[in-house]
Design brief:
By secondary structure, the chain is an all-alpha fold. The chain contains four helices and no strands. The longest helix is centred in the last third of the chain and has 30 residues.
């Protein structure tokens, strides 16, 4: 998507310069919501947990939409120019890989929770939560390293 062809005249036809900050903010909000959701379920506040986790899914979805719009109207990724190149690329590559995995993981986890398949939900949530947290936290880190 980032390097692929676009229709003529698309590049720069919409000012998307503010979207990286919005994307980082959405990732930060998602991180907060995930932690709150974990705390709520540990406190056995199941309905609040459900609401917070659905909101976290909403902020992650908003991030994905914003990310696609940004890269559709802006050609190519921003290059890292800092002093921590190896660390940056480790974070970036692991973030991209796990971001692709978190979509189906989150969908399955939410589906099982929504349908009260509590045992199956707990089992996959133990995998989903740390991966989702890693992706949202490293999303903010990548923004901080680039901007």
């Amino acid at each position: 998507m980032i390097l692929g062809p676009r229709p003529a005249g698309f590049k720069g036809s919409l000012d998307v310069s503010g979207l990286p900050f919005i994307n980082a903010a959405l990732n930060g909000i998602t991180t907060f919501l995930l932690v709150m959701g974990y705390i709520l379920i540990r406190q056995k506040k199941r309905q609040l947990h459900k609401n917070v986790m659905l909101t976290a899914f909403g902020t992650s979805s908003a991030f994905l939409i914003s990310y696609v719009i940004y890269h559709w109207f802006k050609s190519g990724p921003k290059l890292y120019t800092g002093d921590w190149t190896t660390l940056y690329y480790f974070i970036l590559i692991s973030h991209i890989f796990l971001a692709a995995i978190i979509v189906p993981l989150a969908l399955i986890t939410l589906y099982r929770g929504w349908n009260d398949q509590i045992g199956k939900h707990r089992k996959i949530a133990k995998i989903t939560l740390p991966v989702w947290l890693y992706v949202s936290v490293t999303g903010v880190m990548i923004y901080a390293m680039l901007y």
